[in-house]
Amino acid sequence: MLNVSGVTKRFGGLTAVSSVDLNVQEGEIVSLIGPNGAGKTTLFAMVAGFLKCDEGQVTFDQVSINGMKPHQISKLGMVRTFQITQPFAGLTTLENIMVGAYSNTSDSEVAREKAEKVAETVGMKSLLSQGADGLTVAGRKRLELARALATDPKLLLLDEVMAGLNPTEIDEIVAVIKSIRATGVTIFLIEHVMKAVMNLSDRTYVLNDGKLIASGTPSTVAEDPQVIEAYLGHGAAEAMVAKS
Amino acid sequence: MSALGKNMMLLLAGAVLLMVAPAFIVSKFYIDVLTLIFFTAYLGQSWNILGGYAGQFSFGGVMFFGTGAYASSILLTTFGVPPIIGIVVAIFAGALLGFIVGFMSFRSGLKGSYFALITLAFAELLRVLANSVEFTGGGVGLFLKYAPGLSNLQFETPTGFYYFALLLLFISIAIALWLERSRFGAQLVAIRENEDAAEALGINTLRCKIYAIMIMGAMGGAAGTFYAQKYLYLDPPIAYSIHLSVEMLLVTIVGGMGTVFGPLIGAFVLHVVNEIARHFIDTPGLSLIVYGFILIIIISYLPNGLIGMFKKKLKQTDASALDKLKSDQGDGNA
Q: Has the ipTM of the complex gone over 0.95?
């Protein structure tokens, strides 16, 4: 479904993302993990059209999307959420979600119904008339998800929708993501919350210093010495092996 | 009756009141003041579409007005085209100018104060141009013939112009009402609130902003013809006056940006304050100081405009009504 090959991004002298290859198949939940500053969000921004790739190819459903505008990519069915939530602050929850729903209809009644249905899916039904600027962190994260979902995407790019949530809220949103996948939406997510990564993903890619260092099922990746070193520092892998 | 139905009734009542008002107002002066209020409210609404709804503040809104005024006036004086056709050309000229300015500035990503300044620059550029080319009459200006008649969009009595301005006002309010209910309006508001998020949700932000500035341009163009046929004289400082650019944003900000009736309320309050200040204060210039002082108070204490003040109160009453309803139901169950 999504194919990324040899994608590179440089900011001046810094190579933020360095010839990354990855793919997401239809129906999967694939996660992208890595330490802070590894280039995950930059990679997402390139895939969604917010940044231009310096090198490499991105294709979505066999269509090359290099150089496309974000709204064109969104229309193709790949929709991103933002790590730093970007609500339409002056609008209510319902109006926020309706903007997403308008992606497929110009009829405001149809958009309203769609928005209400999506709000129910993500558990925001009681917050519909609440102003988006008055939402809690958990509420804003859900709103990001709801707006994207209202566009009827084929592939959702979720950028840290669990950051800043407490364990109960995380469990709730994990359930929501599972139910979204059950409706046939493919999901590609960036996440730091390992419990959720393990619980959700079919496959995981690990990015460190802009390079992919590992990929595979979550459990094999978690045992990969390179991954352990990326997170815990040089020598950590041996120390852990010695301990066990 | 539903809240929407009630609002529609109020709206209709207001419209009828304005339509029959001239029958009860004897003074030509008051008719003229009202005409001017409608005209300013109309221009304010044109600014409101791009500034209030789409969040793109322009500081040179007068450029559409001036271009429309010149378009129909030149057609009339040079080619003898009646203004009733001229106003259509003026509308298209304004929209075309809107497209050019919008395409050039939005495509290169100008926003905020940069966009405001570029529109100011465009208006100034057009003023200088109008001053230096021949077909606009240059600095001498254009004199239009007084020949009342519908095809000339001129009227013998102030009441005629009153209705002309009222028609423009109704059209502008209809456009704003449509924005409130339509997808296009929601998309403009989304762009105002967060452009990146709007893009991510599939909104072609560039195209929406260009459409918005084209609507503003079309409206401004029609206003230009109205003005030229009412005052029968046009020169570059009038056609491209910064004062008018400021006035259209001022009435909107004072009344309430991004609201249907903000520009009308703002225009009404500012004109009335202005007239009262002029009436009671004899010292020349002092009335302007009073006017400015009132503006400062309104803007610093009512950031959402006068409408914002009412809306807050409405919301409070809504909430208390809802609480009452809930407690009533609670009683019923008990």
A: no
Classified as helix, coil or strand, A151 is: coil
Angle between helices B62-79 and B112-132 in degrees, nearest 10: 20
Report CA dihedral (B171, B175, B181, B182) to the nearest 10 degrees: 140
H or E stretch at A205: strand A203-208
Distance CA B40, CA B248 (A): 6
Q: Does A153 touch chain B (CB under 8 A)?
A: no
CA B82 to chain CA centroid, Å, is 25
- Running DSSP on this structure, what letter comes out for residue B50? I
| Chain B touched by A231 (CB under 8 Å) | no
Grouped pLDDT means (10 residues each) for chain B, 334 residues:
76 91 89 95 97 95 97 95 96 98 95 95 96 90 92 92 96 96 96 95 96 98 97 95 93 93 94 85 78 81 84 60 51 39
Task: Name the pLDDT band for A28 (thresholds 50, 70, 90).
Answer: very high
Q: pLDDT digits over B265-278, tens only?
A: 999 999 998 888 88
Beta carbon pairs, A and B, within 8 Å: 82
Count H helices and E strands in chain A, helices first. Answer: 10, 10
List pLDDT tens digits, range A169-184: 999 999 999 999 999 9
**B183 vs A108: CB contact, 8 Å cut-off?**
yes
Chain A window 46-105: which residues touch B at a Cβ cutoff of 8 Å?
Answer: 48, 50, 69-71, 74-75, 79-82, 86-91, 95, 98-100, 102-103, 105
CB A71 within 8 A of CB B199: yes
Residue to mutate among B187, B201, B318, with most A CBs inside 10 A, is: B201
Interface of B with A (CB under 8 A): 181-183, 186-187, 189-190, 192-194, 196-205
